């Protein structure tokens, strides 16, 4: 952006002899390089558009098809246009302007191109049909039936070669709309263990009335939308769940990701920031060029990549009734940096007005912020233009960087408190030293530890996690000098950072103070607790012939029952990215089968009976997860039915009650998507801490967990201190004991069982 450059291309002074004009060669050079970079980016986007538009075909395939067609017709002495030019010549005087040979060449190219496009469309249709089959998900882990193997071979054949990030977007199937009957039946099944007989009979009556009367009418509108729109859920989900929410997004919506748990590459804040910024910019360049490999389940089934499009240069812009997600197409990868800050004196610097530099260049730019003298808070007023320019710089920046003046780190002498404070800092900081509306906030602490805070409306956690895995994996490769500084040489002519100017009148200061009071109360109420669980991991869980995710979810139910003495409505996030523009679906983990197992664990049932009930609970959970991933979940369907009812002005007691039920236990697994980037066998110390989020209900828990390698599972627990029912540390103790007790049923690890 222009504000980032301190050099001025043309400088002139007026003298008695006339105008003295000076040209800055370095500034002109930067202008030239910016233009070259811009045109290169346009060309890359144009090329990527073609490659994605014709996938699973390719330009090479076009040459082969057209060349083969032309050669065949020449060998057979046939008219390559199949009589096309003869028919056109009757109405358009083509023959006057083209020789016979030219007509054959042009005709052959046209017919060959049509043949090539036809082949592409057939391949896409077949690929979409193949991707709509989900029978492979019913297979047991580690084994595939012949039908699934044949399907996977056909899938590989029609998927093409060397796909780019967005290559499969046009081939992904649409998210199906479940039937009203199935959704109502599964809903009743999900709430049965949470209601007594009288409550359940009442809810059953409301459900049956909805299924017979209003439900089919609302369903018709959803069917119509599913045929017309790319996804019948995602736009409404973004608008009504995120953008129309009027509460603070800090704690309530934004989530965080942590640094390495046991490794501290450098204690120099600017150096760590330099390497991290370099890694992010490399990732951004790959994203611009669509060179990131699309996520493929089993290396075969592509996931939707639409959410990547708004990762950078994106801001959530608030409104009176609803907000919007603003994404700038700016090609200048600027970064907003905040260092010195107070409630009313926010000093933000616009830096990095170039594309890709060495880490040391970024380190020097960041270091400038330490060496620049800081002025006192400005009390005078500025023009609106200044404020608008500053706000534009914020909203169009690639991401936000906070150079936090506190020190955060896992301390072996005080492991519990150090991690808990670290999590709270990433979640809300001091309430005024993060730009929570930005898509990404990277936080680098005074001692070199770093983390990430992400806004939720534009994308879900796996998208941000993909970027963060890249950043963490790059850090050891980039390395540091012996004294902790970045490796390499700085850019010789990199412009320095420029301070953004703001006008803050008295009434604005009052609003800031009022909002800060609310934010601080919200932040102080959050109770965070991190558990690096190392007693065992998925290695032993798999020996129990149980899904690791099902094992953990059942353990959470057991822990919650011991913690509160009752069951609750439980939310587990699942993805629907096997469908175009898919986001998430809910797995209702508190099932009849799980509750039966929990009662057996707190009762005096035999080990054999407990194992039997555990197997049933795990199978039920896996089946619910499959249904959610394949578009047969119930909660997004119920949500969209509710939205339609509001548009129609219809009041549904059933939907109103369903959508008002609180999620007392909200859970999510943070998947490690790029396993190949981390060698946890040879380097177990390079283990990520994962990430977490705030509690959803005032009297509930938020639990995020990440499964790392064969022996690590990290839990992130949050709750509110104001609730007498919750205590994150108490719940953490119950989770650990529940994990050990369930594993103890299998007698695989005597030490863990004890």
From TrEMBL:
Keywords, alphabetical: Acyltransferase, Fatty acid metabolism, Lipid metabolism, Membrane, Transferase, Transmembrane, Transmembrane helix
GO CC annotations, alphabetized: membrane; mitochondrion
Domain Carnitine O-palmitoyltransferase N-terminal: 1-47
Domain Choline/carnitine acyltransferase: 175-330, 372-737
Protein name: Carnitine palmitoyltransferase 1A
One example GO MF annotation: carnitine O-palmitoyltransferase activity
Organism for this UniProt entry: Oreochromis niloticus
Family: Belongs to the carnitine/choline acetyltransferase family.
Gene3D superfamilies: 6.10.250.1760, Chloramphenicol acetyltransferase-like domain (3.30.559.10), Choline/Carnitine o-acyltransferase, domain 2 (3.30.559.70)
């Amino acid at each position: 952006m222009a504000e980032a450059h301190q050099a001025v291309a043309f400088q002139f002074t007026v003298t008695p002899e006339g105008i003295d004009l000076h040209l800055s060669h370095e500034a002109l050079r930067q202008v030239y390089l910016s233009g070259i970079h811009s045109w290169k980016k346009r060309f890359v986007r144009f090329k990527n558009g073609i490659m994605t538009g014709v996938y699973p075909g390719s330009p090479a395939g076009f040459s082969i098809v057209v060349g083969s067609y032309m050669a065949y017709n020449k060998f057979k002495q046939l008219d390559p246009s199949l009589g096309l030019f003869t028919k056109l010549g009757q109405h358009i005087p083509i023959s006057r302007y083209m020789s016979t040979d030219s007509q054959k060449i042009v005709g052959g190219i046209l017919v060959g191109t049509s043949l090539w496009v036809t082949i592409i469309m057939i391949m896409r249709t077949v690929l979409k049909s193949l991707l709509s089959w989900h029978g492979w998900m019913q297979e047991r882990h580690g084994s595939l039936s012949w039908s699934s193997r044949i399907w996977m071979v056909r899938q590989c054949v029609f998927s093409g070669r060397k796909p780019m990030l967005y290559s499969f977007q046009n081939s992904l199937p649409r998210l199906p709309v479940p039937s009203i009957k199935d959704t109502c039946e599964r809903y009743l099944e999900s709430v049965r263990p949470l209601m007594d007989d009288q409550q359940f009979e009442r809810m059953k009556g409301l459900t049956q009335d909805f299924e017979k009367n209003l439900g089919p009418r609302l369903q018709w509108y959803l069917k119509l939308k599913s045929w017309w729109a790319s996804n019948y859920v995602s736009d409404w989900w973004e608008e009504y769940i995120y953008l129309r929410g009027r509460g603070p997004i800090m704690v309530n919506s934004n989530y965080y990701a942590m640094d390495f748990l046991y490794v501290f590459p450098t204690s120099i804040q600017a150096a760590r920031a330099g390497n991290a910024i370099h890694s992010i910019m490399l990732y951004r360049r790959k994203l611009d060029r669509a060179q990131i490999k699309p996520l493929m389940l089993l290396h075969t089934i592509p996931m939707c990549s639409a959410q990547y499009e708004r990762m950078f240069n994106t801001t959530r812009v608030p409104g009176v009734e609803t907000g919007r997600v603003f994404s700038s197409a700016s090609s200048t990868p600027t970064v907003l940096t905040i260092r010195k800050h107070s409630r009313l004196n926010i000093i933000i610097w616009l830096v990095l007005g170039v594309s890709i530099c060495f880490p040391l260049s970024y380190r020097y730019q960041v270091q400038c912020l330490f060496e620049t003298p800081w002025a006192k808070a400005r009390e005078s007023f500025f023009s609106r233009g200044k404020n608008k320019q500053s706000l534009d710089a914020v909203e169009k920046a690639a991401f936000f960087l906070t150079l936090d003046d506190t020190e955060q780190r896992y301390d072996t002498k005080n492991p519990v408190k150090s991690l808990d404070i670290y999590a709270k800092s990433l979640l809300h900081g001091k309430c005024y030293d993060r730009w929570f509306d930005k898509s990404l906030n990277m936080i680098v602490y005074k001692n070199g530890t770093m983390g990430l805070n992400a806004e939720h409306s534009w994308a879900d956690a796996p998208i941000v996690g993909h970027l963060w895995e890249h950043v963490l994996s790059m850090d050891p490769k980039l390395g540091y000098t012996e004294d902790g500084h970045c490796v390499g040489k700085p850019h010789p002519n990199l412009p320095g950072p420029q301070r953004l100017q703001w006008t803050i009148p008295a009434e604005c200061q009052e609003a800031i103070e009022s909002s800060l009071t609310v934010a601080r109360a919200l932040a102080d109420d959050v109770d965070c607790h991190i558990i690096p669980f190392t007693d065992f991991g998925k290695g032993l869980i798999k020996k129990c012939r149980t899904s690791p995710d099902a094992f953990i979810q059942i353990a959470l139910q057991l822990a919650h029952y011991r913690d509160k003495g009752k069951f609750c409505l439980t939310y587990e996030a699942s993805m629907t990215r096997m469908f175009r523009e898919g986001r998430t679906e809910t797995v209702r983990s508190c099932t009849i089968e799980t509750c039966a197992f929990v009662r057996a664990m707190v009762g005096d049932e035999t080990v054999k009976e407990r194992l039997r009930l555990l197997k049933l609970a795990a199978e039920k959970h896996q089946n619910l997860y499959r249904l959610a991933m394949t578009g047969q979940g119930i909660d997004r369907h119920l949500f969209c039915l509710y939205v339609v009812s509001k548009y129609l002005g219809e009041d549904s007691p059933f939907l109103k009650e369903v959508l008002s039920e609180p999620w007392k236990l909200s859970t999510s697994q943070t998947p490690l998507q790029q396993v190949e980037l981390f060698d946890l066998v040879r380097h177990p110390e390079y283990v990520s801490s994962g990430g977490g989020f705030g509690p959803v209900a005032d009297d509930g828990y938020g639990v995020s967990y990440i499964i790392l390698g064969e022996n690590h599972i990290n839990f992130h627990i949050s709750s509110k201190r104001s609730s007498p029912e919750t205590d994150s540390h108490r719940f953490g103790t119950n989770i650990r004991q529940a994990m050990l007790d369930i594993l103890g049923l299998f007698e695989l690890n005597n030490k863990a069982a004890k």
